[in-house]
Design a protein that fits this description.
Elements: H1 2-7, H2 12-28, H3 34-53, H4 60-71, H5 79-86, H6 90-101, H7 105-123, H8 128-134, H9 140-151, H10 155-171
């Protein structure tokens, strides 16, 4: 499955994370019948990985930016910083990114940061300000504003609404 995902244009960082997760689950499997569910889960998650992280339809510049965003959400991911890293004109990069992805670079970065924040809020007990910082947003008020824009909830409301669901899932 790993090789198929590589051919699907997914960055190795994402493949390694998922492969490591499944390697641990395989090592911890105690019964043979657990492998059927594990195999099915692997198929689903590898397919979702390709669906959400494939970059084969993008130019090398856009692929580089997407990999840079996925690699470190806390970095300076502004248009100016990305253009400087690639040694290209910011206006050109902006129009290229929008043309290929259908959205602005800022919108893409903010959505990725909120997606990671959702994960952290649901899977950790980190304070909300620490979640924002781990997602690259230092200002708590701005973090709340951006989070609410994409989820219609504040980070606190999100955590309160989802805490029981995630605790029950982890017990399964």
């Amino acid at each position: 499955m790993r090789k198929a995902v590589e051919k699907g244009g997914v960055h190795p960082i994402h493949i390694d994370r998922l492969s490591s997760e499944f390697a641990k689950r395989i090592e911890n499997a105690a019964k043979l019948d657990e492998f059927g569910d594990l195999w099915q889960d692997m198929g689903k998650k590898y397919c979702l990985l390709v669906k959400s992280h494939t970059t084969t339809n993008y130019s090398q510049l856009v692929q580089y930016i997407i990999a840079r965003i996925d690699f470190d959400l806390t970095a300076d991911l502004s248009l100016k910083a990305n253009a400087a890293a690639l040694n290209v004109n910011p206006s050109y990069l902006s129009s290229l990114f929008r043309k290929e992805t259908g959205r602005t670079l800022t919108d893409y970065v903010n959505q990725k940061r909120v997606e990671h924040a959702v994960y952290l809020l649901a899977s950790t007990d980190l304070p909300i300000s620490a979640v924002g910082q781990r997602c690259g947003i230092q200002d708590d008020n701005y973090f709340t504003k951006i989070f609410k824009k994409y989820t219609s909830l504040t980070p606190k409301q999100y955590r309160q609404q989802n805490i029981g669901f995630h605790q029950n899932r982890s017990l399964q």
